[in-house]
Write a structure and sequence with these properties.
The chain has helices at residues 2-18, 20-26, 32-39, 43-71, 73-92, 97-125, 128-159, 163-183, 197-208, 210-219, 223-240, 245-269, 275-298, 302-328, 335-357, 364-390, 402-412. Helices cover 82% and strands 0% of the residues. It has 17 helices and no strands. Residues 395-414 have low confidence and may be disordered. 45% of the residues are buried. The protein folds into two domains: 1-191, Growth Hormone, Chain: A; 193-414, Up-down Bundle (Growth Hormone, Chain: A). The protein is an all-alpha fold.
């Protein structure tokens, strides 16, 4: 009973920590115009506090993850949360936009420290189906947080100055820190030796791990359309379909709910289906959503756009916990670095998809439809090769698991 209670506590802790990045970015989005007005500057300058946050977060993920393989998850997690609290306070005390940008960069660095530990701890502490279910739970949290965060920020702005948004972020991080101190013990089973140079060597070993590189590189492509929708959705619904901001907000939230529903469905389906079969089904569903979105280029109807993207979001939400689990299974050391490499690559793929989707194209719906179609198509093209590799042990002995073989046969038509 004690062990079961501890595992539940760790699951709740990971969900709590996972909310740090979306709360740090989305909670203050409604405040950007007001900050520009208060300081009499362009909104583009204020937006640097968001762009550079993402840059700092993405780059330092790799550093924190590797450091956790040397010094353990607990010191990195505590350092990240403490740094986040301090930097949030500095954001609240900023005297001008440059102080805010500098504080936000520090906040991004600290948020990466906490965020990079979520999948690493999940890999340390859970196994098999239980880990898949925990990652699905985290996926649900990551879907809910971006939906709720802007509303929290807007509510604060209704009654208080924008600086109190960062105060609220510091308070929430303090709660996470208190829970971490109370319930979390070190989960890293083996710590590596070496100094700062070992950070680079860990990623060198990962790059030589062909299964890790191929699995992460291929499946991470699905993040590009998902993030691309975040950037393109406002233009699609408001500019092209002529909808109000309120209607856009509802449809954007509905798409997030589809992703959450997909993660929730994963927790139930994994009890009855092979993870490989489910990934195949999810990728085919993403492809079907892309085909629907291609039709929008010839028949621009908002419900067709919403339906195709909802289908993609549901299948993406279903695939993400399984894919993250599958990638982590390819490593038995450098786990912190491997977990950070997953998140970093997904952010890079997502940022690339967002940049592509938001460019000024003559046929924007065609470009976006191609993005949503080609990415899952690329994953499906390499998926049989990945299956053959990951179902074989290092000694070239095939893993004898009937359900896994069934997943391979189903895809190949055997």
């Amino acid at each position: 009973m004690g062990q079961a209670k501890q595992r539940k506590r760790y699951t709740l802790l990971l969900g709590l920590i996972a909310t740090v990045p979306p709360l740090a970015t989305d909670m203050y989005l409604p405040a950007l115009p007001r900050i520009a007005v208060d300081w009499k500057i362009d909104e583009s300058t204020v937006n640097l506090s968001l762009v550079l946050w993402f840059a700092a977060f993405s780059v330092t993920l790799l550093v924190w993850g590797s450091l956790s393989d040397r010094y353990g998850r607990r010191p990195i997690l505590l350092s990240g949360l403490i740094g986040f609290i301090v930097s949030s306070g500095l954001c609240a005390l900023s005297g001008n936009v440059y102080h805010l940008i500098a504080a936000r960069i520090l906040q991004g660095v600290a948020a990466a420290g906490a965020s990079s530990m979520v999948m690493a701890i999940a890999r340390d502490y859970y196994d098999g189906v239980e880990r898949q279910r925990v990652l699905a739970w985290i996926g649900i949290i990551l879907g809910i947080a971006p939906m709720v965060a802007p509303s929290i920020g807007a509510a604060i702005l209704k009654y208080a100055d924008w600086r109190f948004i960062f105060v609220a972020q510091a308070v929430l991080a303090t709660v996470s820190l208190s829970v971490t101190v109370a319930v979390y013990g070190e989960t890293a089973k083996v710590l590596d030796e070496g100094g700062l140079g070992s950070i680079v060597s860990r990623y060198g070993r990962l790059l030589r791990n062909t299964n890790y590189v191929l699995t992460n590189g291929a499946t991470g492509l699905l993040s590009a359309p998902f993030f691309g929708f975040i950037g393109f959705s406002g233009t699609a619904y408001i500019v092209h379909f002529g909808m109000s901001e309120q209607a856009f907000g509802l449809l954007f939230g509905a798409n997030a709910l589809c992703a959450i529903a997909g993660s929730a469905a994963c927790t139930q389906l994994i009890k009855r289906q092979s993870e490989y079969r489910l990934v195949t089904i999810a990728c085919l569903g993403c492809l079907a959503g892309g085909v629907v979105l291609l039709l929008v280029a010839w028949r621009p109807i908002w419900i067709l756009f919403a339906g195709g993207m909802g289908m993609f979001a549901f299948c993406f939400g279903m695939s993400r916990p399984l894919i993250n689990h599958l990638i982590l299974e390819q490593v038995d050391r450098d786990i912190g670095a491997a977990a950070s490499g997953i998140v970093c690559y997904q952010f890079i793929a997502g940022a690339s998809g967002m940049a592509l989707a938001t460019r000024q194209w003559g046929e924007p719906f065609l470009v976006f439809g191609l993005l949503v179609t080609l990415c899952p198509l690329a994953v499906l093209a390499i998926w049989p090769v990945l299956l053959r590799r990951i179902l074989r042990r290092p000694d070239d002995q095939t893993v004898d698991i009937a359900s896994q073989e069934a997943g391979t046969e189903e895809f190949s038509g055997g």
